[in-house]
Queue: 3 jobs
Job 1
Amino acid sequence: MATCSADLAPLLGPNATAAADYICNKFSDTSFAVDNTYLLFSAYLVFSMQLGFAMLCAGSVRAKNTMNIMLTNVLDAAIGGLFYYLFGFAFAFGSPSNGFIGRHHFALRSVPSSSFDYSNFLYQWAFAIAAAGITSGSIAERTQFVSYLIYSSFLTGFVYPVVSHWFWATDGWASALRTDDFLFGSGVIDFAGSGVVHLVGGVAGLWGALIEGPRIGRFDHSGRSVALRGHSATLVVIGTFMLWFGWYGFNPGSFNKISSFYTSGNYYGQWSAVGRTAVTTTLAGCTAALTTLFGKRILTGHWNVTDVCNGLLGGFAAITAGCSVVEPWAAIICGFVAAWVLISCNKL
């Protein structure tokens, strides 16, 4: 602000200093408003992914379990909202604290502040319930309702917030935002949550599946596996497109602001980085979808839309960590590798 006033004052004549301060303050206010609006819009996009999860999961299960899986997705959002408000945001971003867990801002106390506004809470809540939504599909068709309530509360109110504190808080033990004592000299760069969101949800889902065991009918009496097909490929495709749409809030929105310029008067600024992040996200997902399509065709002899949808989402999850720093051509490689990892894991 001082630099802005100093540059502007010589151009304004009488009362130059006061006029320059007034104009620069107005520009600063506008910048805050634009950035908060951008973050709120990104939060709305990420929240729309809940509809994507609901459609994807509903289409992937048998018809008799549709209502149950839809209910769990609604509960993720509702329970997550309350528990992330009471505890989660504080555990994640309640600085100053220790490297393991935050300890301020319970129930949004002292928010808004110079560090956080309500838009930050809403955006991070949408991330928390996305992690819970990932897990709901892993344990579909074999989870008691009360047990799922307990799980969703614990994941959104404690597990995800603690992990996000480690990597995204300014004093997290693995954070690249620390001022000193970086892990491996740099800290962990997970820009939008390949590890913090998707890996947390995936690991929780893996443990849930291991504890609960296979779905009824997954194996016949001789122990051979039986394919349990989802009842609606249409819902799977609709859900995939909704998740694709929401990912443009997930990855580009993780900048938290858009109005910053790198060099005054230059066309290149934070808005360019946001755009490039959207491009790398798109290219990784598209490459993974096509690689999965043709890879599965070579291996099985069939074209399968469900495989393509899974490959697309796998590419998005893979690029999420580095979407802001990789070049577009590198995003294509990332999507290609992610698709073959997915295909290999499906063989297990």
Job 2
Amino acid sequence: MSALSNILVIRLSSLGDVLLCMPAVKAMKDRFPGAHITWLVEGPVGELLSCQSFIDEVIQFPRGRLQDGLRAANPIGVARELKGFLARLRKDRYDCIVDFHGIIKSALITVCARGDRKIGFGAMHAKEKSHLFYGERVHGTDRRMHKVDKNMLMARYIGADNAVPEVTLKVPGSTGAYIDNFFQHAGIRSPLFAVNPFSSKGTGFKRWPIERYARLIERVKDYMGAQTLILWGPGEREEAERLKSMAGEKAFLACPTNIPQLYALLERVDMYIGGDTGVMHLASAAQTPVVAIFGPTDVKINAPYGPNSIIVRNEVPCSPCKKKDCRERACIEGISVEDVFEAVKTMSTKPA
């Protein structure tokens, strides 16, 4: 295959999916070290992408500004935003455009961009009939393959090696200084466990009960003498403070962070405990031991990639599923505090 010099990668969101796409993009850069790789993304994860040496340029899709314009009934503003975005998108011509996202929005962006080859997933892994828009389709053989392995199909299709490369994320030194300063002023020390009881908007069906997190923090404190840092994001502070009050001493509320700062924080903790979220994958990327509490989502597809994790789940016949309005929630409600605590103890004794 001839060398590629200009590649556009499309994976718009979310944090976890972007992280699970990085090995494939790194494999592309390793195969074509002289190529200019541009990543089209939306939201705050773009700040993390901008720090990585194997990504040369980041283009932001203006989703927030478009939503603001629609809410304000400002069609002229929306049209102006779209015009500016399309002008930037079409400024360069790419040797190939690789759509990892595989939804109708990303497929339409692929159509609008200027490129010699437009590549996406075939029907098995594409959503919303997006496969119909690609000039070349990459087909899988297993619907339930891990997302990292699925994304590597794309990299191999354009000529990358079979091996999944290691990705060591980089963040500015100022992020570590910010976290170190917070730890020093708050009196936070090791052993330190990070707990994230939350999940993204609309995915509350994945969450383990917050009262059980409180009891788990107490067990960790009594048995291991560890401090616990409660992570939180936009709109979650009030509930995080409630968890802190339930958990008692040795539980701390994390400082506000952007994604690079959160990565620096996760590098500094001894263990991460939480559900199937993007932050779980960020902790895994930081090489932090992870205890992951899985409910209805598919472990085969979404588990932390690599050996430094333990999955806690309740095996029930109906899991995995996507039934957001499930009343029983046996898959997540059936996980006890003792189940998770045993996994924490096991992880704490595993060799680094």
Job 3
Amino acid sequence: MKILKIDPVHIKSDFIRQAARVLRRGSLVVFPTETVYGIGADVFNEKAVAKIFIVKQRMADNPIIVHIAQMSDLKKLARNVLPQALLLAKHFWPGPLTLILSKKREVSQIVTGDNDTVAVRMPDHPVALALIKAVKSPIAAPSANLSGKPSATDVAHALSDFGDKIDVYIDSGPAKIGLESTVLDLTVNPPEILRPGAITKEILQKFLGRVVDNKNHPKNKIRSPGMKYRHYAPNARLVLVNGNPKIIVKKMQALLGKFKKEGKKVGIIASKETVAHCRQADSVVILSTRRNLKMAAHKLFRALRRFDDERMDIIISETFPERDIGKAIMNRLRKAATS
């Protein structure tokens, strides 16, 4: 196992070449993106991609997002690329938007979860782009965490989950956004958001007109990562508290008192507006003010992982406004809280 520290501003080309050689020989590399860290394999090496499922303990029907570095890579993966896709790529790539497109035969069913579609995005991170270019092949890469657990937003999270099971880890500091990309299915009409992220429905509608949210019925085929009901989950039970700040404080205090009487170790995820009333908890993480949703998103998975490290029995989290990236925050919290 090797850890390569690569500054995204001053990229060490020799380190990129080392990591690229590891990928070309069929091994796995953990690398940074602007959303979360990914665990990558050469998309056209079936044996390498299969290792991702083994290491992550990932179900075979859960597709993997493929990362590209230039538009010419898209032609290797997708057929019948619609004008809608080209329009969105022009405006949002590189960036936190994944597009579901009809796949080419050359893309293995292992990558796509036995779907006839492929999920593709171009990450907005100089290290990720340099690595993909050096490999000279798109990289299949889900988030670098054990399946069902909170995503890795820095290399330490991935190391904690995988240790020496991964040949190379690239450490470029914390992920900028902290939540996974928006996933948009362009093979259906109207286009459908399968997973919310930083690129919101309102933004996408400015370019496409009508866009709908996915209902995520449990019997539907999984077209995108993040569609499993229990996902992003800490080891502790997660309890969500709804309402305005005054109601949230009242509910949190009641729950905290109840769980402490039961002898539980309790962690609380709070905003700056509510934190003063949570001091009797065993551990408290302040994400942000309730208005600063970007900061809340950035810190969410780090908070969940911290509580696992502290061996909390219960996590109580306030809910956040479902505007802008707040919708993605609540998507992750609700899935993490699903028993």
